[in-house]
Amino acid sequence: MNGSVTIFPTPGDLAMKFAEEIVTVISESARLHGSVSIALSGGSTPELLYSVIADRFSHSADWKTVRFFWGDERCVPPGDIESNYGMARRCLLDKIKIPGSNIHRIRGENDPLFEVIRYSGEVRTNTRSGDGFPVFDLVILGLGEDGHTASIFPSDISSLDSDNICEVAFHPVTMQKRITLTGRVINNADRITFLVTGKKKAGIIGKIINKRSSGQNIPAARIVPVHGVLKWLMDEEAAVFLRR
Ligand code: 6PG
Q1: CA-to-CA distance for 183 and 160, rounded, in angstroms?
Q2: How far does residue 103's CA lie from ligand 1's centre (Å)?
Q3: Which of 14, 85, 149, 208 maximizes ligand 1 atoms within 8 Å of its Cβ, making it the mutation to test the pocket?
Q4: For atom 11 of ligand 1, which residue has the closest CA?
Q5: pTM of the model
C-alpha cells in the first residue's frame, strides 16, 4: 500500500480536519503558483466535507484563487440528482464566493465522446503541466466497494494507464455512462487524498491497506503518485479490519 493512513473516530472529525487541510493547501498553493486546482470527488462521502467547508470555512480561503474540477461525472444533466457537480453546487459552490469562471464542471449533458475532448482541453488550459500531463494541486477521491475510484472500474481498468486526460467509462452494474480523469492524470497530482467512511468500505479498505491482494484489479490500489503525496483518510468503521 502506498501513502499514509489516518483514522478518525467519526466522519465529522475527518471532514473537519480535512477541511482545515484544504484551506492550508489553498493558501500555500496560491502563494506558490498564483492559483489552486482541485479535482472534487463525487458520490455521497464528500457531501459532509463540502458542507463543513461551506459552513465553517467559507471565509477562510481566497476562493478567487481556486479552480474546481471534477475527477469524474455521471453523463446526466447538471440538475439531475445523480450529478456530482449538482451535489457540490448544493453543498458548497452556492455558499462560497467563487467566480463562475473558476468552476470547471464536466458537462454530463453533452455527448460523452465530445465531452471527453472538450473537458480535456479545459483541464489542460486551466492547470499546471508536468511530465506532459496536467498537475492538480489536490485530487480528492472516493472508494467504491469494488475498489473503483473516480469512474475507473475493475471491469475496465484501461482508464488507469490511458495516455488521455479523461475517458468515457461505464458503471459495471447500471451501465450508466461516466466521464473520468485517467489514472495517469490522477497520479500526476501534487496531493491525492482518499476519503473513505462507513462499514461498507471496511472489506475493500482491508484488501488495499493490508495488501491482502495483488491490487492488480483494484483501481484504487493502482493510484500511486508519480511525485506527489498520497493520503488515505478514513473513519473507525471503514478501518475496522486494518492491522494496527
Ligand atoms: C462517483 C464517484 C465514485 C465514488 C465512489 C464512492 O461518481 O460515484 O466518483 O468514485 O467516490 O463510488 O461513492 P460513495 O461516496 O457514495 O460511497
Answers
A1: 4
A2: 20
A3: 149
A4: 142
A5: 0.98
